[in-house]
């Protein structure tokens, strides 16, 4: 019998990548959205007709499972949980949402839970909340998941992606991030991951839940300096990677505490995904050049 998986953030990057990665499986995919009639939700079901939309808000997670029961053929077996980064100093909404979906999943007898967090130094992530506010929030959610799931029938796996390749864009935000990468990291390499690989590993964990129960997996597909990334970009497109002025990047670092602390931590400690091991699990793991060619919005 087909098992149902509830995907939070289904109209966003990570959740959308999970929905896509589950299309070749026997799972019934339930896509959580705040409004089922929204353009993004309708675009999702247009692209993936077998997907069933579930309307709900993570603040009231128990109601989500009530709505899921109305459209799913079977009770929800698995949950993919990701929360959007919250702007501003108050990170409590993200933590409330992350903990709420854990509580609701346990109450609904969910059997397998995949949480998308962030890498904070490979194996050290489990004991290192770091000084970055929105990473501390994810650390707290991880610990809550461990505590609440202990001794229950709900197993879980935690994915810890590094910086997203998908953040390399030709708009202001992408240019600013590239400039900060250039100016702050200098010759220090940065680990990066393609969002679609997050989806692949989430789907792989659901498909192999017995093997992945209790696993914490840091995700990256490349480890490169800005200069190396720029060289790859020039090879593909015969121009430099789009950036903004260093003064603008410096001002953003001064004004946005989270980003400032993030780059300071990346320079001092850095992420530590085991890329060679990830390639063993997924030989099609996406490197930066492949991502530019196949998945980025850049074209010749």
UniProtKB/TrEMBL annotation:
InterPro entries: NAD(P)-bd_dom_sf (IPR036291), NmrA-like (IPR008030), NmrA-like_oxidored (IPR051164). Belongs to the NmrA-type oxidoreductase family. Coiled coil: none annotated. This is NmrA-like domain-containing protein. Keywords: NADP. Residues 2-270 form the NmrA-like domain. Gene3D superfamilies: NAD(P)-binding Rossmann-like Domain, UDP-galactose 4-epimerase, domain 1. It comes from Massariosphaeria phaeospora. One of its GO terms (cellular component) is nucleus.
């Amino acid at each position: 019998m087909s098992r149902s998986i509830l995907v939070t953030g289904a109209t966003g990057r990570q959740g959308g990548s999970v929905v896509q990665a589950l299309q070749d499986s026997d799972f019934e995919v339930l896509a959580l959205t705040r409004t089922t009639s929204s353009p993004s939700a309708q675009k999702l079901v247009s692209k993936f007709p077998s997907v069933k939309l579930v309307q709900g808000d993570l603040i009231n997670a128990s109601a989500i499972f009530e709505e899921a029961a109305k459209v799913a053929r079977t009770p929800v077996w698995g949950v993919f949980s990701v929360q959007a980064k919250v702007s501003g100093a108050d990170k409590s909404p993200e933590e409330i949402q992350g903990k709420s979906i854990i509580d609701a999943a346990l109450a609904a007898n969910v059997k397998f839970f995949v949480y998308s967090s962030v890498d904070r130094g490979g194996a050290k992530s489990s004991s290192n909340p770091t000084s970055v506010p929105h990473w501390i929030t994810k650390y707290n959610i991880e610990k809550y998941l461990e505590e609440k799931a202990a001794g229950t029938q709900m197993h879980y796996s935690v994915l810890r992606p590094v910086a997203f390749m998908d953040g390399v864009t030709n708009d202001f935000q992408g240019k600013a991030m590239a400039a900060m990468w250039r100016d702050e990291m200098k010759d220090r390499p940065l680990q990066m991951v393609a969002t679609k690989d997050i989806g692949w590993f989430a789907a792989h964990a659901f498909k192999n839940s017995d093997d992945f129960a209790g696993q914490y997996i840091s995700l990256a597909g490349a480890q490169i300096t800005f200069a190396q990334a720029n060289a790859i970009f020039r090879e593909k497109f015969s121009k430099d990677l789009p950036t903004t002025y260093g003064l603008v990047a410096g001002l953003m670092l001064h004004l946005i505490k989270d980003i400032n602390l993030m780059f300071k931590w990346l320079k001092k400690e850095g992420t530590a995904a085991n890329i060679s091991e990830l390639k063993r699990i997924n030989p099609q793991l996406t490197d930066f050049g492949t991502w530019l060619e196949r998945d980025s919005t850049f074209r010749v």
